[in-house]
Every structure is written in structure tokens, then in C-alpha cells.
């Protein structure tokens, strides 16, 4: 049995918590990426039901683009440390928050593509500030068998 030195125990505790927190934050990242494919095939009515009315729309023939916007404001992190026995100090500010624009492209009334834009990356991962826009749509798709979730719920064709 290996005994850890007293100094190694806090380091091990910090590393363990970092690994566990990385596992806990992957959910938001996955939701945003999963939405890119899982929501394909949603109708315009489905998107209105789960995401609400769009902030902006654009139509050209059989193609429509709906834009949804989300803004997250939070305090961020401010660190201040005295140096030279308090004679001077240093300050570090890491602002948090940002905004997301999610664009849904419809071709013939069905979602064909989803794209994300804006200052939407966070410490949790790429595009994660877009999670509030697509989260309810993923739940809606699972609950009602919409989009790519409908393909999983279809019975297999008869082998007659």
C-alpha cells in the first residue's frame, strides 16, 4: 500500500475535483452539439412550440431563416493580491457572460441546418451559452418523437 505524503493529499484532492467537474460540465456542450442533428426535420410549428417566436426572420422562396437571441450576464471573477507586503497590489478581472444567436434554416418548412454565432463560448465549452435556446427543443423532440427522435421511434418495416 502506498502512503501519500501530506503535501500530496491537497494536490490529489484538487485534481480529483477538477476531473469530476469536467465530467459534470460536458452536458451543456453535448446539448448544443446534439441539437445540430437531433432537431433536423422539426417543423416551423415544432420550433415555435419549444423555442418560442424568433427574434428575426428572413424568407427567400422555399427557404426561411429564424434567429433566436440569448444573453447571459454574470459577475465573472475578480482576483486581487497584495505584493511587496501590501505596498502595492495587482488586480485581475475575468469577465463572464456573453450572447448567442442561434439560426434555424428551414427548407420546405423543415429544419435543414442550425448554426450558432456570437460571443457564445464559456468555461463550460464551445457554444454553451446557446444551451437555453435549444434545451427545451431537445426535450420536446424526445417527448413527442420529433426530428431525428422520430426516426428512432418508428417501427421496423414489415418483412413480408
UniProtKB/TrEMBL annotation:
Superkingdom field: Bacteria
Keyword line: Signal
PROSITE patterns linked to this entry: PROKAR_LIPOPROTEIN
Signal peptide: 1-22
Record's protein name: Lipoprotein
Originating species: Plantimonas leprariae
